[in-house]
Design a protein that fits this description.
The longest helix has 18 residues, at about 145-165. This protein starts with 17 loop residues before the first helix and ends with a helix. It has an 8-stranded parallel barrel with strand order 1-4-5-6-7-8-9-10, surrounded by 9 helices. The protein has one domain: Alpha-Beta Barrel (TIM Barrel). Helix 3 (about 105-115) links the parallel strand 4 (about 80-85) and strand 5. It is built from 11 helices and 10 strands. With about 325 residues, the protein is of the alpha/beta class. Bound molecules: ligand PBG. Ligand PBG binds next to loops. The site of ligand PBG has 10 residues, from loops. This is Delta-aminolevulinic acid dehydratase. Belongs to the ALAD family. One of its GO terms (molecular function) is porphobilinogen synthase activity. Pfam families: ALAD. InterPro entries: ALAD, ALAD_AS, Aldolase_TIM.
Length: about 325
């Protein structure tokens, strides 16, 4: 042994005890950084389980308020609310997303009344839950998604959500110019107080599969003409530049784990808070593997969320939010 050079530096010294490791941990996960996405469905008497997302449900208005309180009391930073209308309320332009008493706006109103400013209420600003064809926008005569016609609907939807009580609106449809029209519509109505969380880098991902069940989506075909190609990295910096120019208050990368490189790029370039969304398929993968005893679920939850934070996300949207907050002792 003495013939060999001994290591001069010994990184293992700082790994020796749990207390040492805790002291030098560079990334900390805190419940306040987490946002819980929730689904509220019209016309149901009891919460409905979502087969592909064990443990996640479509809420009734009552169970939604309960879940929101639970999340808040566990220290979770906010909620992202998705509405699931009755099938007969879907139409070609998604009007059910605009009406005051539509499932999403009604739920936002109730949540704001019940929780006030004790949490951050975010609303999904997109048409796919409300259109009968399942696309995120309105269609043109050729059946393609009409960017600019869709923007006009988003503007109205933003106002409806602001009136209903959203603190933050989250345009997620990947239409060009969506942040600008939403900002202009809000400002024009005197709602300079409502923030915009831009879905800046949103990839056309297979990881949204379970979400389609969660919102009872009727989509046939795909979203490849508006969501980003998984092969592209620089394009996200272009989307970031545009969203910042258009007034985004926060920007988001989605999905999270398969796109940590993109998240890292965006975090390095952005001068606003960066969020990442651990989406339905990421949740389903962990649940599926854990249910077969293939890996340790709680460790996976904490490790994936920590990795997403380490890559640069300040805020993480995750279906595990409330549970993770408890795991973290929040
Ligand atoms: C669009 C939207 C989607 C998700 C969030 N907002 C679906 C899609 O783009 O196809 C997916 C979230 C998830 O998979 O958890 N309204």
């Amino acid at each position: 042994m003495t013939a060999y050079t001994r290591p001069q530096e010994r990184p293992r010294r700082l790994r020796a005890t749990p207390a040492l490791r805790r002291l030098v941990a560079q990334t900390r996960l805190h419940p306040a950084d987490l946002v819980l996405p929730v689904f509220v469905r019209d016309g149901i008497g009891e919460p409905q389980p979502i087969r592909s997302m064990p443990g996640v449900v479509q809420h009734t208005p009552t169970s939604l308020v309960r879940a929101a309180r639970e999340a808040r009391d566990a220290g979770v930073g906010g909620l992202m609310v998705f509405g699931v209308p009755r099938p007969e309320d879907k139409d070609a332009t998604g009007r059910a997303g605009l009406s005051e008493d539509g499932v999403l706006n009604a739920a936002l109103r109730t949540l704001r009344e019940e929780l006030g400013d004790t949490t951050v209420l975010m609303s999904d600003l997109c048409l796919d839950e409300f259109t009968d064809h399942g696309h995120c926008g309105v269609l043109d005569d050729a059946g393609g998604v009409d960017n600019d016609a869709t923007l006009e609907v988003y503007a109205e939807m933003a106002l409806a959500q602001a009136r209903a009580g959203a603190h933050v609106v989250g345009p997620s449809g990947m239409m060009d110019g969506q942040v600008q029209v939403v900002r202009e519509a809000l400002d024009g109505a005197g709602r300079t107080d409502v923030a915009v969380l831009a879905y800046t880098a949103k990839y056309a991902s297979a990881c949204y599969g379970p979400f389609r069940e969660a919102v009872a989506s009727t989509l046939t075909g795909d979203r490849a003409t508006y969501q980003q190609d998984p092969a592209n990295r620089d394009e996200s910096l272009r989307e970031l530049r545009l969203d910042l120019q258009q007034g985004a208050d926060m920007v988001m990368v989605k999905p999270a784990l398969p796109y940590l490189d993109v998240l890292s790029d965006v975090a390095a370039a952005a001068d606003v808070p960066v969020a990442a969304y651990q989406v339905s398929g990421e949740y389903a993968m962990i649940e599926a593997a854990a249910s077969q005893g293939l890996l340790d679920r709680d460790r996976m939850v904490v490790e994936t969320l920590t990795s997403i934070r380490r890559a640069g996300a300040q805020v993480v949207l995750t279906y595990y939010a409330t549970e993770a907050a408890r795991l973290l002792g929040g």
